[in-house]
Amino acid sequence: MAKIKLTKNELKAQNDALKRYSRFLPMLQLKKQQLQAEIAGIAARAEDVARAERERRKALDSWIGLFATAPETLEGLVKIEGVKTSTANIAGVTVPVYESIEAKVAQADLFSTPPWIDEAAEAVVSVSALRAERETLDRQRELVERELAATSQRVNLFEKVKIPECRENIRIIKISIGDEQTAAVTRGKMAKARGRGGEGAA
Questions:
Q1: What is the C-alpha to C-alpha distance for residues 43 and 49, in angstroms, rounded to an integer?
Q2: Is the Cβ–Cβ distance between 108 and 117 less than 8 Å?
């Protein structure tokens, strides 16, 4: 703990700091709760998307045998050119929000490719879109968790360090000022008594 001045000015400064920390702490605690709730919500959405992705991939198993019969048709069938996202604000954190993927499906020759190729391309795009959405949600959670860690540190700092420190400083300063005032009164009484004694002698 840093050394403090045992003065009335320092007492005022410590009281002001205590009021400030006490005012900010509930806001930080509320933000912490909001971030925790948002993380739980993001995790639930990510799990839903991951489940849908797993189910879609499982549905693709039926295509495996067909892929084996025409592997040359798969090369370059679908190219993911990018993921389109927007941004949102979650409890003060700017996060990406999945919008869509930019997928390019190769034009297939209707005469040289099997009839199921269009459905296969559609399935690949669908799985890719779900994966992109899941990865965007993972990034959201990472950013919000980072903010939660920083907010939790501030809550702990205020709760366990700053507020107790201010209260202890105020206690010490009040005792010191009280002692000084008592000593001043005692000195005043002694001086008055000496003055009266001098008058009697005269």
A1: 10
A2: yes
Give domain 8-188's CATH architecture: Orthogonal Bundle (1.10)
Tokens of 19: 């009021």
What is the spatial distance between Cα 86 and Cα 95, in angstroms, rounded to a whole number?
8
Q: With contact defined as beta carbons under 8 Å apart, do 119 and 74 qualify?
A: no
How does pLDDT run across 161-192, given as a tens digit for each residue?
999 999 999 999 999 998 888 887 777 777 77
Q: How many other C-beta atoms can be found within 10 angstroms of the C-beta atom of residue 53?
A: 19
Query: What tens digit of pLDDT does each residue of 68-102 get?
Result: 555 445 556 778 889 999 999 988 899 999 999 99
- The type of residue at 110 is L
This prediction's pTM: 0.76
Residue 132: CB atoms within 10 Å: 23
Q: How many CA atoms lie within 13 A of 108 on its CB side?
A: 22
Q: Chain centroid to CA 173: how far?
A: 37
Of 25, 188, 57, 191, give the one whose Cα is nearest residue 127.
Answer: 57
| CA 120 to each of CA 32, 45, 64, 76, 148: distance values in angstroms, whole numbers, following the listed order | 45, 26, 10, 13, 42
